[in-house]
């Protein structure tokens, strides 16, 4: 299989995403991007036994010295405390301004390592090696880094671009089914936002994709990265259209916070959140009932939750009011004008209520 | 007195420094720079009773709502914990992405508030109102923000530019003598780095400056800000010449860390550190003994310490090896080719030893 290259054209810091096989095991692309033959690899206890020694071996063979920082695994560890573990480790080993941080793992590792790179000594280079489908199509592209706060997800962070992203298909082989599905939620998101043709392509190939056909997966990842790269290059700091990428996320973040981080995977919450956004769009007469069912059906085939937990309308609203997209007290929602055409808008109370009553679990 | 305006021409984010009187009490310039009529003012327990109500009154008169965040005072509070207090307060009050943070205080408040602005919701606007001489001439210009870590000063931070800086001379009236002197250390630094004419001007006017003549002070602050703005505009991220601004800081940081943060003021440590840098430059035959004495005499007239604490050469070297300017294990020093001409270079062990034995307190 050929390696796909997607260029992310951020003004001041363009970089490449490589998508293919055998990227991690050779690590040749990494060596070319270092400012000194020294890296610190941040990973977690799940990924380390699978890929860390392979990566370290490939880097050491190029004469690169490697510090290993292994964190506990899970969204509930995306905290100040974990970030501080990275800082302590870097300072103890005297990592320098030219030392490159490498994020080896999923979205949580990528977000935390990117943020650590943004603030260690006011900024050091970093490289992403996303090992989950979700991270490959979404969180490793675009430079959003963050940690969570008890009062809100991703509330503390920075916009900070990597020097290089390696999306190695080999790492998807070991991905648990539930994580794989969570990644498909973000894949489907790109179709819903502004690529109807891709949505149709996904409907055609969903079964083969779920069977992890590598050629189709590489194609899907490339297409998602291209979509995201285009949106991010036009609006790095999310002053406008980049917010479209948050389709399903305002509801989704409320689900994650309401259930406690880690109970649902991020992608699962986004899937159920996209269904709520679809119901809300239907309440505004943008989508038909058939459109909503089409969204639900595709997500179901990707083995994702389509019914949201019943937190109660008040708790949903309180949690959503904490969202970063709030402006002068008004929550900005990402809604669908039609399938494949998202927009940023406000939701009347009645539409929120309609969406929640259609999309939430019925409490008996 | 007219208000001086110094433009800082950072590529992507130019901004003005206003230097004058009555800036805080009217706060008219602030209103024009807000993205929503809402600010959060971060200050400390020393500055709050002096200036907070005045500022809040002036802002509220313009219809701007103000959140007040008052931290304990001192370099020893420039920590994760204080930063977290700011984050907690902002999240509790649901500060938004367009809410502007205002730093009202000295260098510690400015550095922490700037860093908080850099990372809260991945970046919100901020405005600096430096209330110490040191902050007015140095730490509020150039966008370096940071907190300390037990293993090193300013090790965690970001480059993040303010939208506006107000240097109000009125605030210097209440500044304790020791703090005023500490600010003069940074003023003198600009003369030593690359402005011999300014150094001579300072030698002429040092007594009047120490008597806080407002016209002379405004002139000195303007000149320091212009010097710094020029250096920073050319090298925002300190990949080259910006490091010259760290004259006296490599030794100075070692003094601060060695004695425990807060024992000496930053400016005091920089003063003694500049004397060590001068001795080191003499050991390299760049400066004459008379040059070194000229530096010492000016610092003494500014009532600054010129003799460094005797931490022992080994501890000095160990602490300096933690500096951010270390590259591949080699410490970069800022040295003087002659008075008014600094350069970045390495120091042989013998020159470090010579400087420490000439400049440190003799233990009996």
Automatic annotation (TrEMBL), chains A, B:
The keyword rRNA-binding does not apply. Its EC number is 4.2.3.4. It catalyses: 7-phospho-2-dehydro-3-deoxy-D-arabino-heptonate = 3-dehydroquinate + phosphate. NAD(+) binds at residues 73-78, 107-111, 131-132, 144, 153, 171-174. Zn(2+) binds at residues 186, 249, 266. GO terms for biological process: amino acid biosynthetic process; aromatic amino acid family biosynthetic process; chorismate biosynthetic process. It is found in: Cytoplasm. GO terms for molecular function: 3-dehydroquinate synthase activity; metal ion binding; nucleotide binding. Keywords: Amino-acid biosynthesis, Aromatic amino acid biosynthesis, Cobalt, Cytoplasm, Lyase, Metal-binding, NAD, Nucleotide-binding, Zinc. Its cofactor is NAD(+); Co(2+); Zn(2+). Pathway: Metabolic intermediate biosynthesis; chorismate biosynthesis; chorismate from D-erythrose 4-phosphate and phosphoenolpyruvate: step 2/7. Residues 69-181 form the 3-dehydroquinate synthase N-terminal domain. Binds 1 divalent metal cation per subunit. Can use either Co(2+) or Zn(2+). CDD domains: DHQS. Its main location: cytoplasm. NCBIfam families: aroB. Catalyzes the conversion of 3-deoxy-D-arabino-heptulosonate 7-phosphate (DAHP) to dehydroquinate (DHQ). Belongs to the sugar phosphate cyclases superfamily. Dehydroquinate synthase family. HAMAP family: DHQ_synthase. This is 3-dehydroquinate synthase. It comes from Chitinibacter fontanus. The gene is aroB.
